[in-house]
Structure to design on (402 residues):
């Protein structure tokens, strides 16, 4: 008897040492369906999908695709079974062009003529445009915005024939306009009979795009339900395990003096063109300033200039009344300016180092953290543990690589 499900995951358990990331999870998805995996950060969503895509192997449990039990030992196995995953931290080679990343690993890509390259560029550009996901096909992906890089990943997955597509927190790096365009693409793929699995913790987006929702909490499946039969409030309660009380805070505040001022700022992007052209900006104490725009219009370069990661060609930047020098990351840190980057694994964290080392990056030279060039190891571990406890960082130990 043919199964109604394109994907069945039965009693999936995944352990990392003493940490139980997935605890006997069942998941069933149909062709032509957008199925959302909903849960807080650390609920086990990405871990479950990494087992489907071959990055991890289940500790126990089994997977059925199109009615046939399968063993997925690698991403190559997953691709052969029609599974494609767009990771939250993209799997792209920054020095290669978008086209080169998409065809990477193809047998036909080994011997490449100039005409072959032009043909592939045209083919992939047309595919991206038909999906509503255009990007510069001949530019190195390291020069593309995060939103554009995500488009490359989605097109790569579809180009390689995926029928079951996993998107891991896909809207976390997108503007609202880009989210709308992504959802149009997902609806089109659903109409083609493809199965879309979407991991997220954003309730409004789940209600807007998903047909069914599986809620995870602390590594366990709580419930699977139809989107039309639930609400944001009900989903929030399932996610956290208790009813949330609505809080209304009315605390009007008058912004203070100018904290950060940018005058006539000119900076160039990696591809050589001007990304900032005579920009003026003021940020006052006690206010939040939003910078809006379609990806690729200078937001990334502005953030990098303001945090010392990119030099500027012309203009002045003042922070707390003091002129800033170009390309001085440490000087900005010491002045009190912090940065949460759009790509945390590329420019925010060192994945191979442990919790303590990562937490020390912006303060290891201070008297609190070191003396005469030697780190205060015991004191730093206690400090790191206090941060892990305070912010509920989910890690087996302080020695676990990020």
């Amino acid at each position: 008897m043919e199964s109604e499900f394109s994907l069945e995951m039965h009693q999936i358990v995944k352990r990392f040492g003493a940490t139980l990331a997935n605890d006997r999870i069942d998941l069933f998805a149909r062709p032509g369906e957008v199925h959302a995996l909903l849960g807080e950060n650390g609920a086990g969503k990405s871990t479950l999908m990494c087992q489907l895509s071959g990055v991890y192997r289940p500790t126990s449990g089994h997977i059925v695709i199109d009615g046939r039990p399968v063993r997925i030992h690698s991403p190559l196995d997953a691709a052969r079974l029609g599974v494609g995953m767009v990771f939250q931290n993209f799997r792209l080679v920054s020095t290669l062009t978008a086209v080169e990343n998409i065809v990477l690993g193809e047998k036909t890509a080994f011997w490449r003529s100039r005409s072959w390259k032009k043909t592939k560029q045209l083919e992939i550009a047309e595919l991206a445009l038909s999906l509503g996901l255009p990007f510069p096909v001949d530019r190195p992906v390291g020069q593309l915005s995060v939103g554009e890089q995500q488009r490359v990943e989605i097109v790569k997955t579809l180009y390689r024939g995926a029928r079951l597509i996993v998107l891991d927190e896909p809207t976390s790096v997108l503007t609202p306009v880009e989210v709308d365009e992504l959802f149009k693409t997902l609806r089109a793929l659903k109409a083609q009979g493809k199965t879309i699995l979407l991991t997220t913790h954003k309730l409004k987006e789940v209600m807007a795009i998903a047909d069914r929702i599986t809620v995870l909490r602390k590594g366990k499946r709580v419930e699977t339900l139809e989107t039309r039969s639930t609400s944001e409030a009900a989903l929030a309660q399932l996610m956290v395990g208790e009813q949330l009380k609505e809080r209304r805070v009315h605390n009007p505040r008058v912004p203070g003096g100018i904290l950060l001022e940018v005058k006539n700022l000119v900076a160039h992007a990696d591809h050589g063109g001007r990304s900032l052209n005579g920009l003026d900006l003021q940020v006052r104490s006690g206010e939040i300033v939003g910078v809006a725009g379609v990806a690729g219009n200078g937001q990334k370069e502005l953030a990098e200039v303001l945090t010392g990661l990119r030099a500027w060609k012309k203009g002045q930047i003042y922070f707390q009344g003091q002129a800033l020098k170009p390309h001085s990351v440490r000087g900005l840190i010491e002045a009190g300016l912090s940065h949460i980057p759009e790509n945390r694994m590329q420019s925010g964290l060192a994945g191979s180092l442990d919790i303590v080392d990562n937490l020390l990056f912006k303060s290891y030279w201070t008297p609190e953290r070191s003396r005469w060039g030697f780190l205060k190891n015991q004191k730093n571990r206690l400090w790191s543990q206090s941060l892990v406890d305070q912010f509920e960082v989910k890690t087996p130990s302080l020695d676990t690589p990020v």
